[in-house]
Design goal:
With 577 residues, the protein is an all-beta fold. The chain is built from 2 helices and 39 strands. The strands form 7 sheets. Strands 28, 30, 31, 32, 33, 34 and 38 form a 7-stranded mixed sheet that branches. Strands 2, 3, 4, 5, 6 and 23 form a 6-stranded mixed sheet that branches. Strands 11, 12, 13, 14, 15 and 16 form a 6-stranded antiparallel sheet that branches.
C-alpha cells in the first residue's frame, strides 16, 4: 500500500496519490541566486498570456515542479518557489482534485524548518502504512548541504485534504556517513516503499559512485529505523547520477494496475531512472528476485540511448503511482521550459505537469504503453469528424471547426502501397538525429505525413508531428516506422530551444493503421503514436500561431498517397488553482 509524490522543474515530480502508491521525484537543478526572489508586480498571471495552458497543471505564477489519493481525493504536492520563476526557496505546494483534471490550491504542506531540511525540502514519496496512515519520506538538505532522508506524517488523519504535516523528531532517518561511504551530494529521491514477504519494508534512493548509477536499497521493520543493504537493488556503469528512481510491479496478463508491494509469477517489474548527466530518462523491464533483493533487466533492456523511454521529448523527473480507487497505475512527468531564463522571468512562471497517463505492459511484454487518463475526455466539446480521406503526395488540408490552440486530435493513417518507401540506412540508428535531418519540409517516399499543430496561416510557424516509413535494410518485406516532432519552425523567436525529437515505433504498417493522438495546449503538444507505444512532448512558444490565430492541418509531403480518418475536439479550460 504505497502512496505517491511528484515534483517538477529539474526536480523529480513530487506528487502524492495517497490511496495506495504515491511516489516522489527530485533532480538536480541550476541555481540562479539573482533571480530566486524575482517578483511580478501582481500575484496573478499576466493578462492574456498566450503561453499559459488551458488544461495542464501549473500554479498562477513562479517556478514549479511536481500526485496521491486519500479518502477519494487526489493530492498533488509539488516543489514550488513562491518568490521567483527559477529554482530556489523551495516549499512543497499542495493542490487537490477529485478527477486529476481540475485542481484546488491549499497552503504549502512542507517547508524548511528543522536542521535536517533547513536548506531545502526536496522530493519525496509516500507509503500507506497498515491501518491506512500515510507516511511521507523526502530528501532534506542539512546545514552542511548534505542530502538526507526525512519522514513526516499528516497531523490530522480525519482531514481528507491533509493540509498539515508533522516531521518526526528522529529525522534524518537515513544519511551519508563515513561508514556507508554514500556521496553526500548524490543521495536523493526515496521511492514508494514496498513490503516483502518477510514483513520488512524496502525502498531505493538514487545515487552514484564515480560514474556508476546506483539504486541504493534500504530495509526497515518499523518504517522508522532503516538499514542500508550491502548491495544496491541495481546499478550501471557510465550512467552518472540516477535521479528520481521509480520501481514498480506490472501485470503480465492484465491491464489492471498493481500495488507497489505486489509480486508473483504473473508480475514483471519496471525500474525507471532519470540521468542527471543527459537529462534523459530510461526504463527497463525485468525480474525482481525478492529473496536476494536484486533486480535483473530482461535481455536487451538497457539504460542507454538504445533503451526505452517514456517520452522522447520534453519530459523528465517522472514518477508513477498506483491509483487504488480505479486499479490503475498512473504516470506523471515534468515538462520543463524551452524558453530562456529571461523569457521565464518575462512570463512570470516556469514548468508544468504533463497530462497524467495510464501505463500498462504491451502484449509483447517488451515495452510499456501509455495513454492520457480517460478523465481528460470530459473536457472535449465540438467534435469535428475527419472522414476517411486520401491525402495525396504534397497535399495539405486544414481542420476547421476546432480551437486549434486548445484541442485533442485522434487520427489514423493507412497505407496501401509501400513500393516508394526508402531503405533505412543501417547508420540511421538515432531517431532524433534522423528526424533532425529529415524534418517535415524534407520530401520522402512514404512520408512525412501527419499533423501541423500550432501553425500560422502562412505556415511560417508550425510544430509538425509526423511519420516516415522505411524499408528495413536487411529485409525488404519489413518496415521501420519513425515518429518525429519537428519544432524547428515552432517560433519566430530564436531564443527558444527548438530541438527536433524522434522515436522508432514498434508497429507493423502492413497490418496496422498508424494511430496518432496529439494534445495541443497553447505552448505544449503531447503526442502519442502506435496507441501509446511511443510518446513525444513538445514545448513551443509561437509568436504568430497564438490563440485564435493558430491553425491545425493534416499533411502529406511524401510521394505516396496515404488515407487519413479520425476526430478532433476543442477542449474546455480546466479549473486549475
Amino acid at each position: 500500500m504505497a502512496m505517491m509524490i511528484f515534483s517538477l522543474w529539474q526536480f523529480c515530480l513530487l506528487s502524492l496519490l495517497l490511496s495506495y502508491g504515491v511516489v516522489e521525484l527530485q533532480a538536480s537543478h541550476h541555481v540562479y541566486s539573482n533571480l530566486q526572489t524575482t517578483q511580478l508586480t501582481s500575484t496573478q498571471p499576466q493578462a492574456k498570456d498566450p503561453y499559459r495552458t488551458g488544461y495542464h497543471f501549473q500554479p498562477p505564477k513562479n517556478w514549479i515542479n511536481g500526485p496521491m489519493i486519500y479518502k477519494g481525493i487526489y493530492h498533488l504536492f509539488y516543489q514550488y518557489n513562491p518568490k521567483g520563476v527559477v529554482w530556489g526557496n523551495i516549499v512543497w505546494a499542495h493542490s487537490t482534485s477529485t478527477d486529476l483534471v481540475n485542481w484546488i490550491p491549499h497552503e504549502a504542506a512542507i517547508y524548511p524548518s528543522e536542521p535536517s531540511d533547513i536548506n531545502g525540502c526536496w522530493s519525496g514519496s509516500a507509503t500507506i502504512l497498515p491501518g491506512g496512515k500515510p507516511a511521507m519520506l523526502y530528501t532534506g538538505i542539512n546545514p552542511q548541504n548534505q542530502q538526507v532522508q526525512n519522514l513526516a506524517f499528516p497531523k490530522n488523519l480525519s482531514d481528507p485534504f491533509l493540509r498539515e504535516w508533522v516531521k518526526v523528531p528522529q529525522n534524518p532517518l537515513m544519511a551519508p556517513t563515513q561508514a556507508n561511504q554514500i556521496n553526500v551530494s548524490s543521495f536523493r529521491d526515496p521511492t514508494t516503499a514496498w513490503l516483502g514477504p518477510d514483513k520488512r519494508w524496502r525502498l531505493i534512493i538514487g545515487s552514484k559512485r564515480d560514474q556508476r548509477g546506483l539504486a541504493i536499497l534500504y530495509r526497515s521493520k518499523d518504517f522508522m529505523h532503516w538499514t542500508k543493504a550491502k548491495h544496491p537493488l541495481h546499478s550501471k556503469e557510465k550512467n552518472g547520477m540516477w535521479e528520481c528512481p521509480d520501481f514498480f510491479p506490472i501485470s503480465k496478463t492484465s491491464s489492471v494496475g498493481l500495488d507497489t508491494s505486489t509480486y508473483g509469477p504473473n508480475v514483471k517489474h519496471v525500474l525507471k531512472i532519470s540521468l542527471d548527466n543527459t537529462r534523459k530518462e530510461y526504463y527497463t523491464i525485468g525480474t525482481y528476485n525478492i529473496s536476494k533483493d536484486i533486480y535483473i533487466p530482461d535481455k536487451g533492456s538497457v539504460e542507454s540511448d538504445s533503451g526505452l523511454r517514456y517520452d522522447y521529448g520534453k519530459f523528465y523527473a517522472s514518477k508513477t503511482f498506483f491509483d487504488s480507487a480505479k486499479n490503475r497505475r498512473i504516470l506523471w512527468g515534468w515538462i520543463n521550459e524551452s524558453s530562456s531564463v529571461n523569457g521565464d522571468v518575462k512570463k512570470g512562471w516556469s514548468g508544468l505537469q504533463a497530462i497524467p497517463r495510464t501505463i500498462v505492459l504491451d502484449k509483447s511484454g517488451k515495452q510499456l504503453v501509455q495513454w492520457p487518463i480517460v478523465e481528460l475526455e470530459k473536457l472535449r466539446t465540438k467534435e469535428v469528424k475527419l472522414p476517411s480521406t486520401v491525402l495525396k503526395g504534397g497535399s495539405l488540408h486544414e481542420v476547421f471547426g476546432v480551437t486549434a490552440a486548445q484541442a485533442d486530435v485522434e487520427v489514423a493513417f493507412e497505407i496501401s502501397d509501400f513500393k516508394k518507401a526508402e531503405v533505412l540506412d543501417p547508420s540511421w540508428t538515432n531517431p532524433q538525429i534522423l528526424c533532425s535531418k529529415k524534418g517535415a519540409s524534407v520530401k520522402g517516399g512514404l512520408g512525412p505525413f501527419g499533423l501541423l499543430t500550432l501553425a500560422s496561416k502562412d505556415l511560417k510557424e508550425n510544430t509538425a508531428v509526423f511519420y516516415r516509413i522505411f524499408k528495413s535494410h536487411n529485409n525488404y518485406k519489413k518496415y521501420v516506422v519513425l515518429m518525429c516532432s519537428d519544432q524547428s519552425r515552432s517560433s519566430q523567436n530564436q531564443d527558444n530551444d527548438m530541438t527536433t525529437y524522434g522515436a522508432f515505433v514498434n508497429v507493423d504498417p502492413l497490418h496496422e493503421k498508424l494511430s496518432l493522438r496529439s494534445l495541443i495546449d497553447h505552448s505544449i503538444v503531447e503526442s502519442f503514436s502506435g496507441e501509446g507505444k511511443a510518446c513525444i512532448t513538445a514545448r513551443v512558444y509561437p509568436t504568430l500561431a497564438v490563440d485564435g490565430d493558430a491553425h491545425l492541418y493534416a499533411f502529406n509531403y511524401g510521394n505516396e498517397s496515404v488515407k487519413i480518418a479520425g476526430s478532433a475536439w476543442s477542449l474546455k479550460t480546466a479549473k486549475i488553482n
